[in-house]
Amino acid sequence: MSISERRIGRLPNRRPQVRIDKWLWAARFFKTRSLASHACELGRIESNGLTAKPSREIHIGDHLRIKNDSGDFQVEVLALAEIRGPAAVAQKLYRETDASREARLKLEQERKASPHFEALREGKPSKRDRRELNRFRGR
């Protein structure tokens, strides 16, 4: 078995497989592999309906549910990779379901439509805050 076969998870008489944390990193759902691993430990990744540990092996055709800062993704694995490549290559590793894409777009539109409120500051106003208050009051 060559190094390249080992790298992409090919073994004789077995389906190709890759660790889920490596695949999530290679598919660019997470910036680092440790973030992908941490998301698995927190239960934010499901593989075929089951919560996935970082060491879980995934295969082509598996269905994943991924929750990260960008949203909630439901994808089907189309190809396997252990190494991170360009974004164009990473997008070919999976296919997002139509329902998932629509739900993310709907949430994004709702987020844009909702008013943005600045967090209330506690305690004494800063010099900048006082100047803004004085301008507002016309002093």
Characterization of this structure:
This protein has 139 residues and is of the alpha+beta class. It has a single domain, classed as RNA-binding S4 domain (Structural Genomics Hypothetical 15.5 Kd Protein In mrcA-pckA Intergenic Region, Chain A, Roll). 37% of the residues lie in helices and 18% in strands. The protein contains 6 helices and 7 strands, in the order αβααβββββαβαα. The chain has helices spanning 3-7, 20-26, 33-41, 87-90, 98-113, 127-137, and strands at residues 18-19, 45-47, 50-51, 57-58, 63-68, 71-77, 94-96. Strands 3-2-5-6-7 form a 5-stranded antiparallel β-sheet. Strands 1-4 form a two-stranded antiparallel sheet. The longest helix is centred in the C-terminal third of the chain and has 16 residues, at 98-113. It is elongated and about 80 Å long. The termini are far apart. The relative contact order is 0.13.
Notable characteristics:
139 residues, Structural Genomics Hypothetical 15.5 Kd Protein In mrcA-pckA Intergenic Region, Chain A, five-stranded antiparallel β-sheet, two-stranded antiparallel ribbon, alpha+beta, 18% strand
Q: What secondary-structure arrangement, pairings included, does this model have?
A:
Elements: H1 3-7, E1 18-19, H2 20-26, H3 33-41, E2 45-47, E3 50-51, E4 57-58, E5 63-68, E6 71-77, H4 87-90, E7 94-96, H5 98-113, H6 127-137
Antiparallel strand pairs: 1-4, 2-3, 2-5, 5-6, 6-7
Helix pairs in contact: 2-3
